[in-house]
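Usage

Read records sequentially. Each one opens with the input sequence:
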Amino acid sequence: MPEIVILCGGKGTRLREETEYKPKPMVRIGHKPILWHIMKHFSYYKLHDFILCLGYKGHVIKEYFNNYDIMNNDFTIQIGSMKRELNIQSADEVNWRITLADTGLNAMTGSRLKQIQKYIKGSYFIVTYGDAVANVDINKLIEFHKKSGKIATLTGIKPISRYGVLETYGDDVLRFKEKPQGEGYVNGGFFVFEKEIFDYIDDREDCVLEQSPLENLANDCQLNVYRHGGFWQCMDTYRDFEMLNSKLEEGETPWMIWNKSSQGELK
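and closes with the structure output:
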């Protein structure tokens, strides 16, 4: 099964109210960090091998997962004896395997990706951002990518947005514009990459995945778009934070597919 690489290194300056003391992936939706929501999404598709690219306040993410079992489960502890015993009563994420990789405080997305190349064992892998939730069907995304025969597939979305617009012909991406004016499909992350992607990036700190690497892939006819018409929402600003938490309180959680029955209702 493919590894899931999550980019967790940004400083989240537009969400200063929450990110002054923690990295953006640790900002909470309800009682759980948005990073947990993202990982639960992939876990629903039986993908449990995660690589987290850490940067700004990465130690907070390390501490969270190092103490995960104790902080997220009931446990019984025996003290006052020669042998200290700790019994965890339950563990929902028993299959998660998490590699936490320090990729530098100021490294850009391409650099972070290049630095974890050594951890990729399969022929292809998935990459996403640590600040957006969606109900993308990962099985269909992977199937679409495999049929394309291309090095890279990204998920195109249509939000009210300020993100990179894609100029397409059929399913081929002809041009990738990082922050243009206008309308169209934009980069929503949820990439599927063959290992050949590493030929397009390097570990220079200023290597931005969304610039030359994706542009060059498009020029080489090696970049594909999977169009997602469902839910997608980033947590880029405090307004986004409030909106996602309001949706949770109101029970409008289309990204929480692991909580839905076969009839589509919340358990």
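Summary fields computed downstream for this record:
- Confidence is low (pLDDT under 50) at residues 261-267.
- Residues 15 and 239 are 9 Å apart (CA to CA).
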